[in-house]
Amino acid sequence: MVLQSDPVIVRLVDQPVRDTSVADVIIGAIGLTGLLLITAALLGLVLGGILIGVKKMRARYALEKDADVNAMRVTPHSLT
């Protein structure tokens, strides 16, 4: 009983939380918007490159059966 002493009580104090200001929100939104714009531009370039490559490959290997299938038939004069 002589060795028993009062228990040691330790209080853990949390660090103060930094307040979020309007500037922090705006900077975060601009950063997210910029990331989305860059991602969309890169995906657009990749898809455009793929479409152009497919079109050139079709032209090179003559994979189109009839090139005038989608051509518009426009006459300069009225037929009436």
Descriptive notes:
With 80 residues, the protein is an all-alpha fold. The protein has a domain at 22-62. It contains 1 helix and no strands. It is elongated. The mean pLDDT is 83.
Write the layout of secondary structure elements.
Elements: H1 22-60
Features:
49% helix, elongated, 1 helix, 80 residues, mainly alpha
Terminal CA distance: 119 Å
**What order do the SSEs take from the amino end to the carboxyl end, as H and E?**
H
Shape: elongated
Sheet/helix structural class = mainly alpha
| Largest sheet, strands/sense/barrel | none
* E-strand count: 0
What is the mean pLDDT? 83
H/I helix tally: 1
Strand content is under 5%
Radius of gyration: 35 Å
Helix content: 40-55%
Low-confidence stretches: none
Give me a quick take on this structure:
The chain has 80 residues and is mainly α.
